[in-house]
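Morning!

This is the sequence you dropped in the shared folder:
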Amino acid sequence: MKSSFSLFILLVVVGSCHGGDLRKNFYNKSCPLAEQIVKNITWSNVASNSALPAKFLRLHFHDCFVRGCDASVLLDTTANNTAEKDAIPNRSLSGFDVIDEIKSKLEEACPGEVSCADILALAARDSVSFQFKKPMWEVLTGRRDGRVSLASEALTNLPSPFLNFTSLKQNFANKGLTVHDLVVLSGAHTIGVGHCNFFSNRLYNFTGKGDADPSLNATYAATLSAKCTSLSETTTTVEMDPGSSLNFDNDYFTILKLHEGLFQSDAALLTNKGSSKIVDELLNSNKFFTEFAQSMKRMGAIQVLTGTSGEIRKKCSVVNS
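The structure's back. Tokens below.
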């Protein structure tokens, strides 16, 4: 859910959303150092690249909302298939090289044991946790990797930054997630950046008449206009949480209350009485951290493959032959 996009639909998944086959310390016997290896490599990379937590969070979100948390977002396009990572909403994803580094080390330690889907879930948690030097949420493990990745499914399942509250609520509900999860997980926008073209309509052409979004703070809109000078600007990025975009905190909700949420989907959270009340509750930092941990656990269990389903990929970017 980082940077510019995120969305989700599928009515058949609700019954299989809860990840009952995932458990703590799944690799205790088969690869006892697995979680330590993921953490060590993740922390080493975050130490030299402070933008990685936002990238890994976004990778994990974008994986789970398409076919569930099965690492389908990591698969490369082939001669016969355009994969998720090449869908328009996913072209700005990154961090794949670090996932490959982790997978390579795990294959040395325990060949064929640790799934790419679990690596992604653990790396998202560990990258955010580097700032605090302790795990910020529990990651249950036991996911297996999918063998299908379709760009078309990314387009239909990832939530657009242009969505209104009703559409956002429905998309989360279709994944077995609540309005509470929607608001809490939107707090991930406290780190990372957004591309101009995913919000510049709010500056220059909100209703198609060359107008601005009246719900956007005018002073903030002027700041954004100085950076994003036209509707056609596609390469420039701005911080989603100005001045604090590398710190994982609850500042997103403070900004939201000032009508400085970057995307239309951020501002949408204030248009419903119930979600607006949740925003107010999350102005308490401890409350946000507690709730974020719970919602991430629920999101990380969407449509997981376990047991004998799927496979354990030898390389995260290609299915096993």
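Headline: The chain has two domains: 11-158, 165-296.

More detail when I'm at my desk.
O.
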